[in-house]
UniProtKB/TrEMBL annotation:
Name the record gives this protein: Phosphoglycerol transferase I
InterPro entries according to UniProt: Alkaline_phosphatase_core_sf, OpgB/LTA_synthase_biosynth
Keywords tagged on the record: Membrane, Transferase, Transmembrane, Transmembrane helix
PANTHER family with a match to the protein in the record: LIPOTEICHOIC ACID SYNTHASE, PHOSPHOGLYCEROL TRANSFERASE I
Domain of life: Bacteria
Residues annotated as transmembrane: 26-45, 66-84, 96-119, 161-183, 203-222
GO molecular function: transferase activity
């Protein structure tokens, strides 16, 4: 961090421009690029210790080379800028002109950044979490980060977010080279942006953003997105039974109930003879229990089944809702009308086994190995 602070101080003192806001902006942008580039190089080399100390004021011995490379690139860009400004003074006609052109390039940079971030995030999601569905992604995004492993957040920041920042900076740098027009007046040259180049810049930015979004959608799965947002199912009308329409009789002497949720327990652990994929049955006791008179196993075949999941049940809270209420955790309308993810009023109107037990006077409690708020489970 000391290196970045020194770089910023040198830049703001040596930039040749009478506008302080211009010197400040350029110095901040180039210093931010140097920090991002340092993180990018350290991530590529696997220097995990440097990641933790990147924003601190400490420097590890082995990280000096990384800081040196990123500093050399940043200083190289500055020297390139200084070389072109050595004989002719380049500036903006006024502060208003600087603000307008900066706003235009910032907006186009934001469009570019958005497209790159969407695509990089889609790749990261598939590589990091595997074959997750859009329902799981949307539900996770709607929930707070309480109880989430901080390592996942750091991985995202140093992965797709960092890639998007570095690539966007380089692309915006190219924008300035190809689209920023310069007209001269004696010894001074002024930056300006013609209407034609403004249109071209907008088109290029929109193309990059659209390409990134479409590539991200393709990575997640276009058919899955289409089914989730635009296709209507009659599953509930055809098969759902309202628990209030069923007479449930409790014994006079009510018994205690222990309900165990087991994460990532699936029928693929069974032997092939029982419907799994293993040579040897890895769940002998559970499979025996499922085949007894008192055992229940929901299967699509004569053997034990359950490996194929319907949408909306393949993540922690989705599986809990599906087991306790008999429906997948999927909302077809707006989130607000169903209190989707609201921890104080979770999907009101839906009757679950917890609702039925509460009506019968049961005192209920849940024990979890993680934070109770993780994934909206509270």
């Amino acid at each position: 961090m000391y290196v970045s602070l020194i770089l910023f101080s040198v830049l703001i003192l040596t930039y040749r421009d009478e506008f302080f806001i211009l010197r400040l902006t350029r110095s901040l942008v180039l210093t931010a690029f140097q920090i991002s580039l340092t993180a990018f190089i350290s991530r590529s080399l696997g220097l995990t210790k440097l990641r933790a100390n990147l924003l601190s004021l400490s420097l590890e011995d082995y990280s000096l080379k990384v800081y040196g490379v990123s500093l050399a690139i940043a200083v190289g860009l500055y020297l390139l800028y200084f070389f072109f400004h050595k004989t002719t003074h380049y500036t903006y006609k006024s502060v208003q002109s600087f603000i307008l052109i900066t706003a235009i390039f910032s907006f186009m940079g934001l469009l570019t950044f958005s497209g790159i971030l969407v695509y990089q995030s889609a790749l990261w999601t598939k590589n990091f979490f595997g074959n997750v569905g859009i329902d799981e992604i949307l539900y996770t995004l709607s929930q707070p980060l309480t109880g989430t492993d901080a390592g996942q957040i750091y991985t995202f920041i140093l992965g797709p977010l960092l890639n998007a920042v570095v690539l966007s900076f380089l692309i915006v740098f190219l924008y300035r080279i190809f689209f920023l027009f310069v007209w001269s007046n004696k010894d001074t040259s002024f930056y300006t942006l013609s209407s034609k180049k403004n249109i071209c810049l907008t088109i290029v930015s929109l193309i990059i953003m659209s390409t990134g979004i479409l590539a991200g959608v393709s990575t997640i799965g276009y058919s899955e997105l289409k089914a989730y947002f635009f296709e209507k199912s009659t599953l509930y009308e055809d098969y759902f039974t309202d628990p209030h329409d069923v007479k449930i009789t409790f014994p006079s002497q009510k018994r205690n109930l222990i309900y165990i949720y087991v994460e990532s327990l699936e029928s693929t652990y069974l032997s092939k003879e029982l419907g799994g994929i293993q040579e040897e049955n890895l769940l002998p006791h559970l499979s025996e229990l499922a085949q007894t008179e008192n055992g229940i196993n929901f299967s699509h075949q004569n053997n034990l089944g359950g490996a194929i999941q319907v949408p909306g049940v393949g993540f922690t809270v989705g599986g809990m809702v599906a087991q306790s209420a008999g429906v997948p955790l999927k909302v077809t309308g707006g989130y607000n009308e169903n209190e989707y993810g609201n921890t104080t009023s979770f999907m009101p109107g839906l009757t679950s086994i917890g609702t039925i037990l509460a009506e019968q006077g049961y005192n209920q409690a849940i024990l979890m190995g993680s934070d109770a708020s993780f994934g909206g489970a509270r």
